[in-house]
Write a structure and sequence with these properties.
Elements (H helix, E strand, L loop, with lengths): L1 E7 L4 H11 L6 E8 L5 H8 L4 E3 L8 H14 L4 E5 L7 H6 L4 E5 L14 H10 L3 E8 L9 E8 L6 H25 L3 E3 L5 E3 L2
Parallel strand pairs: 1-2, 1-4, 2-3, 4-5
Antiparallel strand pairs: 5-6, 6-7, 8-9
This protein binds 5-O-phosphono-beta-D-ribofuranosylamine (GRF).
């Protein structure tokens, strides 16, 4: 059983996609053992509670400095003894210590086709505003392992979404979530849970079978 911690900051629709995937058995051999948010008002915490999953808030405002917050975050994650950590819209800089402790066990969903429109400053609607400003015809979402960079870890899975001529950042964000994020994140969790994601020497990721 893949014990999974999901870290969230907002509405939690990606968390919900994983919860629903487990319920429908599209995702097997997986249990979400804890949901952690830096935002006590995140609706994602309510989604966790409704699903009977332990929901914990680690709020930066409750700690004197970033180091104390990082320690509390790592403590909450370690206490759940996860095999996998999923960052689902988690708007927190991940402490290097956590990445070292859980190398290739932390995955993130990013709402573009990395390496486009990613890195520092590219999150939420800003990603889709940049895609529309550049005039790309195809965008999408990416699931990748988390390393010490921002959106720079080995790519596991991507899914493309066509940009419509009348798209606004909001309509594009919604379609990327519906058609890409909510598909590839649950799929990736299931593949990891069933031992089908392998990382090669050069960091390249392959899906077995
Ligand atoms: C999604 O757009 C995701 O791509 C990004 O943050 C947003 C999270 O949305 N990482 P939700 O909290 O899962 O609804």
């Amino acid at each position: 059983m893949l014990k999974t911690v999901v870290c969230v900051s907002g509405g939690g629709t990606n968390l919900q996609a994983i919860i629903d995937g487990i319920e429908r058995r599209d995702i097997t051999n997986t249990q979400i053992v804890r949901v952690i948010s830096n935002n006590r008002h995140a609706y994602a915490l309510e989604r966790a509670r409704k699903a009977g999953i332990e929901a914990v808030c680690v709020s930066p405002g409750d700690y004197g400095d970033r180091a104390q917050f990082n320690e509390a975050l790592i403590r909450q994650i370690d206490a759940a003894s996860p095999d996998l950590i999923v960052l689902a819209g988690f708007l927190v800089v991940i402490p290097p210590e956590l990445i070292r402790k859980y190398r290739n066990k932390i995955i993130n969903i990013h709402p573009s086709l990395i390496p486009s429109f990613c890195g520092t400053g590219y999150y939420g609607l800003k990603v889709h505003e940049a895609a529309l400003a550049r005039g790309v015809k195809i965008t999408g979402a990416t699931v990748h392992f988390v390393d010490e960079g921002t959106d720079t870890g080995p790519i596991i899975m991507q899914k493309a979404v066509a940009v419509q001529p009348d798209d606004t950042p909001e309509t594009l964000q919604r379609r990327v979530m519906e058609e890409a994020e909510w598909v590839i994140l649950p799929r990736t969790v299931d593949l990891i849970a069933n031992g089908r994601v392998k990382t090669g020497d050069g960091g390249a990721v392959s899906i077995q079978g």
